[in-house]
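[worker-b] picked up task from shared queue
[worker-b] task type: protein-ligand structure
[worker-b] ligand name resolved to magnesium ion; SMILES cross-checked against name lookup, match
[worker-b] sequence length check passed
[worker-b] input payload:
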Amino acid sequence: MYENYYNLAIGPFNNTPNSRFFFETEQHREALAKLEYTVRNRRGFALITGEIGSGKTTLTRTLIRRLGSDARVALVNNTRVSSQQLLKLIATEFQIEMPPDPDKATLLSLIKKFVESQHAIGRTVVVVIDEGQCLSIDEFEELRLLTNLESETDKLVQLLILGQPELRATLKHPRLKPLIQRIVMYMHLQPMTFDDTTRYIAYRLVRASKGRPNVDFSREALQAIFEYSQGVPRVVNLVCDNALLVGYSCSTHLIDSAIIRRSISQMLPNFDGSLDDMFTESMLGEQEPDDGRRI
Ligand SMILES: Nc1ncnc2c1ncn2[C@@H]1O[C@H](COP(=O)(O)OP(=O)(O)O)[C@@H](O)[C@H]1O
Ligand SMILES: [Mg+2]
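[worker-b] inference finished, payload out:
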């Protein structure tokens, strides 16, 4: 809606895990490098945790794009399933032909055959489980069977599990000790710092623009965005998207802290947390004067 007005080709703050918009904070860069190393060197099992909206899915999509045709990837997003359904989802992702109602043993043997055939032609097989915090102990044990597939030198299935922080508690279950011992790479994604958040916003605007974005954010606006979002990319996107809409409706190319405050207050119905949790006194109370300086 506001795209033309700000000289943008597409919406810069869409909340989709689009790898084209991947912005490398120091920790996102480190996580991506470690993941790529783990997968390409067939080390086996990597785990990434982080709060909702911290960038786990976006990171994985970027990894998958980088791997390109070197890898066959099964991407499982729906983890509220039985362990048999989980294996079926993986087999379906790999486009493995199956009998109508395969049992677990059949599924495992079909997946094994597929994995070995890919290994024979030099392709890496990757299983990505997103929203891993919804998996039960049984399903984790099933996944462990996949990590058992190995040649003399390599793990044949690269397993990447992503999940919210509570996943760490599930993984502490004694039955999962053998699985935990196989983790070769673990990272917890932290929210962005203020500087990262500022660069993130500028980066996404430039990526989405038709040359140069015709919009500026004042420093106070950036501070207000950071204070509200606490550096969580998903929330930064929501605030910025709304701020551009408010800015457009006010016919201004300068997004200042008043616009941010207005856009945040308009977002309230989207949230079910308590107001006290979301706003600090400084956000609703007395405001620092915004001198309109631009970044
Ligand atoms: N490194 C990043 N670069 C660009 N955008 C990001 C990045 N991390 C997160 N995002 C944005 O934030 C949104 C939420 O990230 P997502 O990967 O879905 O988080 P999670 O999977 O941890 O809940 C994404 O839709 C994406 O637009
Ligand atoms: Mg996600």
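[worker-b] attaching auto-annotations
[worker-b] The chain has 13 helices and seven strands.
[worker-b] releasing lock
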